[in-house]
């Protein structure tokens, strides 16, 4: 069977934008009591505004050429609760491709194996429904159980089933592509989905659109929300919408962002939203995955909150999934009967013939007539190499990379060539040059490889739906905690800003909930704290932790046994205190409200440590 690779389209590249901070220009959100909304809408229109969204508790409108302060002046009315910028939100995806042939057989993406999703059976009778807020799901791709999919149309972005580019269809496939005989299989195959298209033709949307989408997701009966998107600047309206969804028992998941820095992106940065980073197939963090700090505030007001930074990761590098039918391409390369990886460059079609090595193909060569040209990269452009092959009578071209790895490229625009052309890896050069015959093909495909935290986010959502379907009495927050409690540690030992708790593990989370129930290992109390008991890493050192509140502030009592050595105490992976001659310590957090904290004690200067104990407020 010919090995194939999927090639990106221009649409994928145009959607490969980062979650950077973008001003909302002159569009604003106005929070208002519903019973007074008519008055405020009328006032906005009198002020020359164009109203775009009329949702529960707020409207969104453009005041052309007006600053936020000017709008606040125009809309100075006691019925107005808040006016804020309507922040832009973008898809968070990068481009990449790899080998595979989903047009001929069903492929299970590596992230399914990596996250143990293949070890858990999805329960279709549990009532799980995932709301995908994105660029739409194109109904041309056949790899879905379409009877399980609904959506909401938006007059500003068009039909939910007419995708704006590849992004939304790719995301949906990772979550719930059908388990059939072709294409790919999702994390929760065939799960019910509700699609809301928030991105316009330019590839972005607004925070008000996401806030309204959250309301529509809840109205549609969704348990989970997937947002493979983000942008700069927080929005109170947006934050409230996702907090309401979470409070109602749901789970909201969003992408950390693709700028490879410590900037906090929204909506992932809200406490009610689970932030997801991306790792590769080798359990390494993706270099583009953002890693905001879990701390906020300054000086004495600094607080630590793990819900505003990366909590878990999943496969998001070279992720194969669905795209609108026929807009991507696959390629094949066979030399002397052996399959080789390839990358389709241009010109659909197939060709087979004897091999002719043209060097760097800087000029025409009559020896190429009727043959497949094998060409080294370098000196002139890919287009000119293929053009010289075709002008020499060649029927197809294979261009070999001159550095390690696969050659990914195109022939540019304009492209005057017509013969099929593929790229090949440097490692295969000797075999390809020595081959007596070669066949190549470039054909349309319904599948593509993309990379980004956009791709990791639906992997986590799909795993959550898969696990939740086997424990349907749990809340979304309990599923969220189970995924963190059982994640595969990545990077530095323990929780860190890159991986959070680690790579999600479906089978381990499922077993954890089976053994411990929906509350997992966290027991609550009347004081609002949590007591997780103790843990043992294989040494005798055992830690117990009990959280409580006094006058609203958080305290955690720690005690350890089976060691009288000097001890170093860690919270969320950072050292907070070293003690001597004692077996207990009280951590006064000077923080009110909620929070989740991981504690561990280690004999100072050694690797003898207790198990990590989590306290939840």
UniProtKB/TrEMBL annotation:
Keyword Signal: yes
Domain PA positions: 365-429
Residue span(s) of domain Peptidase S8/S53: 126-330
Pfam families assigned: PA, Peptidase_S8
Keywords: Cell wall, Hydrolase, Protease, Secreted, Serine protease, Signal
Any one GO CC term of the record: extracellular space
Origin: domain of life: Bacteria
Molecular function in Gene Ontology: serine-type endopeptidase activity
Signal peptide: 1-23
GO biological process assignments: proteolysis
Active site: 134 (charge relay system), 167 (charge relay system), 454 (charge relay system)
Family to which this protein belongs: Belongs to the peptidase S8 family.
Name assigned to this protein: Alkaline serine protease
Taxonomic source organism: Alteromonas lipolytica
Organism placement in taxonomy: Bacteria, Pseudomonadati, Pseudomonadota, Gammaproteobacteria, Alteromonadales
